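[Meeting: bench + compute handoff]

Bench side (C.D.) handed over the final construct sequence. Compute side (W.E.) agreed to return the predicted structure before the next meeting so the bench team could plan truncations. Sequence as handed over:
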Amino acid sequence: RLETEFGNRLEVVDVIGYYELNQEKIQGIDFIVSAVDLSNLYFQVPVFTVSVFLKNDEIAQIREAMDQMQVSSHTKSSQINRSASDFKQYFSKDNFLICFNQDKNSLLSNMADGLSEGESYNFKESLLHGIQQREELSSVVFSEKIAVPHPIQALGTDVKIAVAICKDPLLWDDQNSNVQLVFLLSPSIYGNEGLTDVTKRIVSLTEKDDLQNQLIACNNFEDFINIFENIT
């Protein structure tokens, strides 16, 4: 969304997690945009804290700051190759759920069960704890109907994504009571090439009510993946 708003004025050099952020990572970086509050950390570059929705006033604040700042004399060209891998490998019928009258904790537990296949014996417990830690930093509800829970740091050996379609709106928290599409991401400790393509499609989905309704109406994995892979 940043690239869409700012075009050639802005290059997203990297997308990283809270625990990956350090002084070495920001060498040659002009500023950080984060949906997580980083006020407890110190960096020698500006940090813009935004909502996951990237509101108009937040865009205006970044644009105003960019107009005034002197950018780095060199530019990293480590753009993520979004077409390098087939993102569909991260989805599977085994990690696809359709639920009715489900509560949040039970749903996350069921989704974590599937993602735990082939992982260490305590993976599920660690995953659920990591999801809770991440939610304490900022919301993982991306739109009225879409939630994207994920652990605060990678835990798995392979990238896996569980999907739940809630036929009845799910109470997620005090501010969100109509969640119907849940994407539970489990990134890999070894690398996550292609995962950015998935998150880019999810962000695009938040702005397309018709496609959200089509996905909610799906009753099987095949219909879901056929719609999801055509999101642009």
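W.E. noted at the follow-up: The CA atoms of residues 84 and 194 lie 7 Å apart. C.D. will use this when planning the next construct.
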